[in-house]
Amino acid sequence: MAVKKMIVRIGRDGATTIRVEGGEGDDCLLFTRSVEQALGVVQQREFTADYHEHDPLAVIERDGLKTREDL
Q: How many CA atoms lie within 13 A of 47 on its CB side?
């Protein structure tokens, strides 16, 4: 498994972006969850190609966010 890295950028206007490198699927969402909760409401989420490298059958949508269920 690759080492995951979280890159957090805070702009002068306060807009914050979080990028994950080395994670796949909902592992990225779990990795950033606590930081997102501390920062506030997520206004936009974009998934990279790394996110889509997972078993699509193990992903469901719950409350508008995709989450991986333990099968």
A: 16
